[in-house]
Design a protein that fits this description.
Blueprint (H helix, E strand, L loop, with lengths): L2 H7 L8 H9 L1 E6 L4 E3 L7 E7 L2 E6 L5 E7 L4 E2 L2 H4 L7 E4 L4 E7 H10 L1 H28 L1
Antiparallel strand pairs: 1-8, 2-7, 3-6, 3-8, 4-5, 4-7
Helix pairs in contact: 1-2, 4-5
Length: 148
Amino acid sequence: MQLEEILKSVELFDGLTAEDVKAVAAVCQAHEFEAGETIAEQGSPGAEMFIIEAGFVEVAVQSPDNNRRVIVNLGSGQTVGEMSLMDQGPRSATVRAISSPTRVQAIRQADFEALCERNTRIGYVVMRNVAADLSFRLRQRLMSDKRG
């Protein structure tokens, strides 16, 4: 599948035009990993987000008492590290490839910011989608806290 087709399936880019998607594809950088390789390390500065193009990754967190817990496994068309587009704060989890090869497309925060300055519509749509996703996650968390 071509990169633009994958980007069209990514929720973060829902609502972008074909021309917008082409502009996003232009700032993507391909990386390939083997099973077990670390893509992003918990606690390290987040300077880019990743779109899984092929293969699978695991997202895991390490607690202060050194317990490791897998949060989710992700595959083609899914994203990780979106918060890095907003800020360059520390990564909240470690992302590792769990299949060989795993191919990801990285979008650096600086490149995305420059793209949004050139095309504010892309920035608006992506930020709206991020806000909707965060609202959904927060609402789900609050509702599950009330039940438990």
